[in-house]
Amino acid sequence: MSRCIVGGFVAMLIAAELLASAPPASAGCQYGGPVLSKCDGPVQPDGTWQRCVAVPHLIYSGASSFLAPEKHCDVLGPDQHPGDPGLAEPPTHID
User: Fold this and answer.
1) According to the UniProt record, where is the region Disordered (predicted)?
2) Which of 21, 81, 82, 88 could form a disulfide with 74 if both were Cys (CB 3.0 to 4.6 A apart)?
3) Do residues 49 and 41 make contact, with C-beta atoms less than 8 angstroms apart?
4) Residue 44 is part of which domain span?
């Protein structure tokens, strides 16, 4: 049983490390608040950029449970309206 708990914890740490790795050049991130992270990719020639948000996701595993990051991405920019309103804050590129 303790091996499963330790294994789940290690998997969560690996997933968190992947999400926390350096964003692409010309990108910015915000951390904390209601989300784990909110990162913008570089601005494209048409003025749009990709924003990815990592939120905690509760995973049930037998008699225990743990939180793992879940990543959602969408395109933002002029005349772009993401499906998730929380993804649009701030409405400008994060530098």
Assistant:
1) 74-95
2) 82
3) yes
4) 2-88
